[in-house]
Write a structure and sequence with these properties.
The chain is built from twelve helices and no strands. By secondary structure, the chain is mainly α.
Length: 233
């Protein structure tokens, strides 16, 4: 539902469905959030104003089922999914949200409430943490992250002709499928957020490390640490 809100599909659907079904969310159809996380977490969102997840489960399941069962919405859903996937794929930073100076997880925030409930002795540490006093240098870490990613990508390109051919093909294809599948899944059913792509994009430096290892084995004429059968290549 959050993603349908973010994509604009829900508003289009409700404009036509509300006169027929009179959903509980209908009074809020002209003031829906612009993003999925706001719809799910914001205390003033229609979801939370009407009782939360469990109270709306039956209605939301009916809405989702009705939308995906109508072919006229399929092109729009596919377009939004493809667009969101492409936007997700280019996000490689840690998390842009932490760069905003007003983002703090103190009173009335879900992290604070749960720490207060289960680990009350840690509240002082939470309040004085670098994240909550804006001392966490995310921009520097993002710069390092970006440099490592570019260097790793260049290494993969430069050394791809040195390592055994079958290994190259299998590893690169598997990596691309995994990264694209992650971007498609998260962008289609959740959000377009930096952290959702950066959590898997580090696999490129991993493959880069493997290529360096294979390259050194070839140049130094050494046996791999973990011997492999010849027919594997």
């Amino acid at each position: 539902m959050g993603k349908l809100v973010e994509s604009g599909v829900l508003k289009t659907y409700l404009d036509k469905a509300c006169p027929v079904y009179n959903y509980g969310i209908c009074p809020y159809k002209d003031s829906l959030e612009t993003n999925a996380w706001g719809f799910v977490w914001d205390a003033s969102s229609p979801l939370n104003k009407t009782g939360g997840w469990e109270a709306n489960r039956k209605e939301y399941i009916h809405i989702i089922s009705d939308i995906i069962s109508r072919p006229k919405y399929w092109p729009f859903l596919m377009f939004k999914s493809g667009e969101a996937t492409l936007r997700e794929l280019v996000l490689i930073n840690i998390d842009g949200l932490f760069e905003l100076p007003w983002v703090k997880y103190l009173k009335d925030s879900p992290p604070y409430e749960n720490v207060s409930k289960y680990y009350p002795h840690e509240l002082n540490e939470l309040a004085s943490s670098k994240q909550n006093v804006n001392a966490l240098d995310i921009k520097f870490m993002d710069s390092v992250y970006f440099i490592v990613f570019i260097v790793a990508l260049l290494i993969v390109i430069l050394l791809i002709g040195v390592t055994p051919k079958n290994f190259q093909i299998i590893s690169v294809i598997f990596l691309l499928i995994l990264v694209v599948l992650n971007a498609f899944t998260t962008a289609t059913f959740a959000n377009v957020l930096t952290r959702l792509n950066s959590r898997v994009i580090w696999l490129i430096p991993v493959v880069s490390s493997i290529y360096i290892y294979e390259y050194l084995m070839v140049r130094l004429k050494l046996s791999p640490i973990l011997p492999m059968k010849k027919d594997m290549y």
